[in-house]
Amino acid sequence: MERFNALLATKTDDGPRIAWSELGRDDLMDGDVLVRVTHTTINYKDGLALTGKGPVIRKWPLIPGIDFAGDVVESSHHEFKAGDGVILNGWGVGETHHGGYSQMARVKGDWLVKRPQGFTAAQTMAIGTAGYTSMLSVLALEDHGVTPQSGPILVTGSAGGVGSVAVALLAKLGYHVIASTGRTEEKAFLEGLGAKEIISRSELSGTPPPLGKERWAGAVDVAGSDTLANVLSHTKLHGAVTTCGLAQGMDLNTTVMPFILRGVTLAGIDSVMAEKEKRQRAWSRLVDDLDKEKLAAATVTKPLSQVQEIAPEILAGKVRGRVVLEVA
């Protein structure tokens, strides 16, 4: 494939322009692995990039898309050969390096992970950065000693990409999952993923008390701002909370009380620049710990050509679970 289609973001005098373009291999950036992209997905960060609501794209012109899966076409990297199935999540792809909204991608082999046996390319993008981030969050809770016996685990934004996979993972591992959502109509969906309790996000969006009633042993938070502050305030003694998003805001109006009186841990989750060993650990655990039927129930498949229509919906919280984008 000498010529291929890609969604290209360019700067113009009238502002950013994002349109489909026909490109050649010489238009791709440096890298030692060339990949034919078969599937990608859309995350909250992609929504920000495609709508211009956030400064995600920092190099122009650029192909957006922070995830992709596909097959190696050419490689000079020692770990990969033609025909290998691979996954990419993060590493600045879709931000400063051409990303996954393209039929072809050239990247550094050190950024790639071989597709685990047991997953199709489509399933890896049903997981995507959102699900991989969920697994990193679960691993962080485990590493901080939070077990199913410790008590309930709260998941905020539970009907979204990170949240839905986190609910499914935690439920399969035996945790009592409390799912927080602003979409009460998704109660049956969340219970199908394994949630034992559903609470309204309004319970967590008000002014947080310095220290509240102990309600959960740990949490996976995607919201930030007052939601995260409330989550921390209600976390049990020696509990742990992971933070990986800012859907409500990037501020954090809290006090030191949960940390010094209850020994609560706030663990930041970096999915973009995580070292390869941590990525491989996460993907290995996903093979074992993620129920594929629940993943399928939380996933819809659409053509990549519709990605610009989906972008404002994901920012508005109207996208349930995960979206796989097929690259024609």
Fold blueprint:
Elements: E1 3-12, E2 15-24, E3 33-41, H1 44-51, E4 67-75, E5 85-89, E6 104-107, E7 112-114, H2 121-143, E8 153-155, H3 161-172, E9 177-181, H4 187-193, E10 197-200, E11 216-221, H5 225-233, E12 235-243, H6 257-261, E13 265-268, H7 276-289, H8 292-297, E14 299-303, H9 307-315, E15 322-326
Parallel strand pairs: 8-9, 8-11, 9-10, 11-12, 12-13, 14-15
Antiparallel strand pairs: 1-2, 3-4, 3-6, 3-15, 4-5, 5-7
The CA-CA distance between the termini, in Å, is 13 Å
In the CATH hierarchy, the third-tier topology of the largest domain is known as Quinone Oxidoreductase, Chain A, domain 1
Shape: globular
SS elements, strand count? 15
User: What is the string of helix and strand elements?
Assistant: EEEHEEEEHEHEHEEHEHEHHEHE
What do these coordinates show?
The chain is of the alpha/beta class and 328 residues long. 28% of the residues lie in helices and 28% in strands. Strands 3, 4, 5, 6, 7, 14 and 15 form a seven-stranded mixed sheet that branches. The chain has a six-stranded parallel sheet with strand order 10-9-8-11-12-13, sandwiched between helices. A two-stranded antiparallel ribbon has the order 1-2. The model has no long low-confidence stretch (mean pLDDT 96).
